[in-house]
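Handout, section B. The chain below has 627 residues.
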Amino acid sequence: MSPSAAQPERAPLTIYTARRVVTMDESLPEATAIGVIGDRIVCVGDADGMQAWREGRKVTVDDRLKDRVLLPGFIDNHVHPFLGALLLPTEIIAPEDWRRPDGGVARAANNPREYLERLKAWIADRAGKDEWLISWGYQPPVHGKLTRRDLDALCPDAPLLLQQRSFHEVFVNTRAMEKLGVRRDMVAGHPQVNWEDGHFFETGRWLAMHRLMPWQMRKEWYHRGLGMLAQLCMQGGLTTIGDQLFGAVDPEYELAAIDAEIESKRLPLRVVNVLDARNFGNRAAGVKVGPPDQPIDFEKGLAVMERMLARGTRQVKFARAVKLFADGAMFSQLMQLGSPGYADGHHGEWLMSPEVLAAGVRTFWRAGFQIHVHVNGDAGMDAVLSALEAAQREVPRLDHRFTVHHLGFHAAAQSRRLAALGAVASVNPYYLHALGDAYSVLGLGSDRASQIVRAGSLVRAGVPVSFHSDYPMAPTEPLFLAWCAATRRTRSGRVAAPTERLTLEQALRGITIDAAHALFIDHEIGSIAAGKRADFTVLGENPRDAGPERLKDIPILGTVFDGELRLLPNPATSVHAARAMARSALAYRPVDPACCATAGDHCDVIREFAHWARQALLGQYPKRVTS
């Protein structure tokens, strides 16, 4: 082509300058400028070194971040958007601080007086309206016992429902009973309903919550709640989240809500969907959710999943990945423990029996899917490792990134087995902070409680480790999770098992490149490098200057998402920033196996809520509560 021939117009270049760019790319760890064309990074270094990309282009040097620090856009690879959508429109009055979507903080109520003051003020603001008043976070051992008579006195004219902090108990007033259509004869003899007190707990919750679900599944509630979750993610500096149970409610309903509240509004957030193997299988086979040992037709579910994978959009990605379950949850002490078990003699529970879990692993391993498994106890981990070893023997695979999630307590030898099998770990370091003190005297003992979430052992064994919130089990605050992993401070301020602490760099990897690795998207995001998506988190301070102890105190100023800058109206810091952690000796209590079983499990709550929501969408619950 002759030199005089017309050259095609080149796409414009934007150069973002910063005080420091922490790239999380080992070959170029820091920079001061990033060149972006469209939604992609084309050059990283300093502004003067981008001459090759300037030629023949319109160039914009964006200096708005010149005094700020940029990191790769934060990633939380394990969130439950549907549960957040149901929770967030409620009034949060809990024993710990929670960030509100509007940027404020719902401060902790740590005694009966504080709780009643907050509850009364909230009810007074809504006086004169016969609409549902739903609050989440009530913890009777901390906040004092409230009966139906107490709630009637507080709120005689509107339906009032208090959800207990762990979702396992519901307390209602008389007007709520009337609106739900629950009568005395319907609950007569039920061992987990106290009619006089308006108290529905464990299996008794079904009588109240399934009748409330049509109200919460209205677009006015659910869509609003999903939008609120997106706002919380933005305040945490997140640009990508992994929905680790997509399809638990209804795939079409969930996609429509994401489109309406995130994509159509161009919010700076990407959702990576990991498919719920159990519910896809049961729906395809026309089978209702059953006990942990109920067989699941994974093959029928697989056929539906294959078609779903092509449904991705700019902001909604479908991973060729599924979610399976092993044992119960940490918060309710229903993880399956090996010898010596629980100090009080109770036992854990399975969410999928080892046989059902192995069948699921076998099906999706053969199909070439990535597999994510929820597991919390060391006996649960044995079941997971056995299933993975069997699959690997039958059909050897490289770079499969089989990912174990949570890892409340596992043995050091299991870290080495995970590494030998090529597994990846996504852990919840909040467990140690929230539960380390209480579990040292309840259930585990001081030695095993100090070893909750052995992140250091995993890294030393060669297992890539990332962090997640499992929202709403922990806040959507990646820097706070990194602080938990790097300091291992419990609520009392004690450092538990110091050798399990991660270094600052390892902690930062857990919310960036290693979090992307666990979702199989580290070729697209997770570090700031040429060719990757232009996703950055904007900070007010360099984490390398702040050090591990001040990670949680660093302000989030906004994000760059696919090349577009979105600053927050006000800087956001963790709700735990520079605050003493209150410790309540009453926050946890021994599990009563006769009462709780799998219904007492946080993770089984997710399954229950998904089932109730699905039934509500199908019109199989009373409609009177929506009037």
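Note. Residues 219-235 form the longest helix (17 residues). Compare this with the example in section A.
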